[in-house]
Amino acid sequence: MEIFNLILLLFFAGACVWLIRILLRQKKAIQIYCCFWTASRIMILIAASLCFLPFLALDFSPMTVLRSVLMAVVIIMFALISDGLGSGGFMYMGSAVPFDAITEYDVKEVKNKCKVVMTVKEVDKKGKTSLTQLTFDFKKEQKDEVANRLKAAIGKKYRRMKLER
Question: Is the CA virtual torsion 91, 95, 100, 105 positive or negative?
Fold first, then answer.
């Protein structure tokens, strides 16, 4: 059982380093952040609390404690990854989406949010091209700022688009 805990500990330590790199990159890249609290993020944070279930079985060995704490830290760090708009494009789940990759976009006001819907062109390692539709939710007050930035960067790619969700 100790070797299993050691393997999990090493895995989550590596994931922690990887997530720190993503969080630092997003801090530099994002200038306008999307809405943060969504149902998915709340579920992820609830999952972080489940990391401490071994303590209900009164398993307080040092490896189990360290593993549980590191797992919770990694899950919380993953929940902290934000989406948003920067000077070079969008950040989506820790990955950069440059303005060049966007083929079309639309900015809509839906209820109390500003939704940016876009189609992104991706080319894989084999050279196959695929189109993916992404949706970003911004605060309603940020609509003008987001629309102006997109118009300045990729104004010619504006199209009226349907919301898939």
Answer: negative
**pTM for this model (two decimals):** 0.78
Give the angle 149-154-160 at the CA atoms, nearest 5°. Answer: 95
CA distance 109 to 6: 49
- Torsion sign, CA atoms 76, 78, 82, 86: positive
Task: Count Cβ atoms below 10 Å from residue 2 Cβ, excluding itself.
Answer: 9
Residue 108 token pair: 């809509």
pLDDT tens by residue, 18-67: 999 999 988 888 999 998 777 888 888 888 888 888 787 777 888 888 88
Contact 101, 122 (CB under 8 A): yes
64, two tokens:
């189990």
- Look at residue 164 in the predicted model and tell me its pLDDT: 61
